Protein: ABC transporter ATP-binding protein
Organism: Natrinema soli
Amino acid sequence: MSQEVSQKQTPAETDVSTETDRDVMIDVRDLRTYYDDGGLFGGTPVKAVDGVTFDIRRGETLGLVGESGCGKTTLGRTLLQLEDATAGEVRFDGVDITSLAGDELHEWRRNAQIVFQDPESSLNDRMTIGEIVREPLDVHDWETSRARQQRVKKLLDTVGLQREHYYRYPHQFSGGQRQRISIARTLALEPDFVVLDEPVSALDVSVQAEIINLLEDLQDEFGLTYLFIAHDLSVVRHICDRVAVMYLGNVMEIGPTEELFTDPANPYTHSLLSAIPEPNPTVDRDRITLHGTPPNPRYPPSGCPFSTRCPARIRPEAYQDLDDELWTGLNTLRDLLNERKRADRSVRDRLRAIVGSDTRFGTVEETYDELFGDLEVPSHVQSVLDEIATHVRAHDESEALTVFDEEFGSVCDGEPPTYHATNGGGHESYCHRHTDDYQDVDAVLENRHG
Ligand SMILES: Nc1ncnc2c1ncn2[C@@H]1O[C@H](COP(=O)(O)OP(=O)(O)OP(=O)(O)O)[C@@H](O)[C@H]1O
């Protein structure tokens, strides 16, 4: 794990986390989990979780959503100390578990368990169901052998399986039943907290509801607290009390589920929700198309993590009314310039020699044609593009980026946002637009995409 971290303002440092009526079980402060690459990329780590601060309240289900690769699983695993935190704290009932090791960590693990997405691969096919569910009891040397067997049989009842299943093998069960086995195993040591990592994504739709119902029943029966990681926003809306929206290792927004779904604050949440088909055709919701892919988590933007794709990105005064497609092209150009700046030239040359030409690093004329060929580019924009092109031809991407940022840059590219309370009730969003200096997110999205 790398120690390359920088301090960022967190909700704890703003005035938004001062509610007194909540019963916090897990308190996460400026948590970072970086993966080192063993030197392959010059020692630049993947910043899978890059400074998140939030809490999980006793007995609640907190949803964690976001695109593939944004760091959800890494965050869930770090909360359980299955990954080492690079920096920050995870306080579990007041104890910072990132500093636990050896016997203390082993003992603490009883409290916190995980259910994985894929019941096909997460169960050992050579063990019987009884052995699988009993394993955590064996590892923790729980009571007597006979008591363990009794406990496993009871757990099989609890999750809707039969005691006779004790001697069967996983391959004799369907996907839904296998997930029930995983859940039984998870509950063996009576944990307080369970990370559910996409627990129904691999299951048939017809079975998903059964497992969701089971998870809800178990939560009521045993007073469990869940972190529910999911892609499927409709499932999240159904089961979660609050939701945290993650992007590129950051929590962009967190708030009560219904409020977040009906009145999202952050442009990224708007974009995610916009991608869900609206079941009610009378509801008029903006359609926002997210362009491009998230940046490489080794090289996140220095300002807002979402700045390169944000549909509500703050623009310089002179370019408020610039055509949206042209802005998208300019954003892509900036990404390409950054990539070129990072790429080792010898690697680029070798790549060209192997594949003939590498379009991502084609000539500046080709790139401009691809990005702006079909668009009407105002002359003042064209003259800046020409200046950028001159620096690119001279292989001076840094200077090209300086020219770009001086002309087209804004606070979104230059400075990380801070968290702002929206609507009260612990609803917070990480965006520059939540200050009086800028038009608010709803208004700008309505103007640009309404
Ligand atoms: N062991 C690892 N070593 C290096 N990089 C990793 C490792 N595990 C994850 N990553 C990287 O960390 C980033 C976050 O991955 P993670 O699996 O946490 O995201 P995710 O949101 O859970 O994605 P998905 O929804 O696809 O499961 C990704 O860029 C991923 O490639």
Summary: Residues 329 and 372 are 7 Å apart (CA to CA). Confidence is low (pLDDT under 50) at residues 1-5, 12-21. Residues 35, 46, 48, 66, 68-74, 297 surround adenosine-5'-triphosphate (CB under 6 Å). The first helix runs from residue 72 to 79.
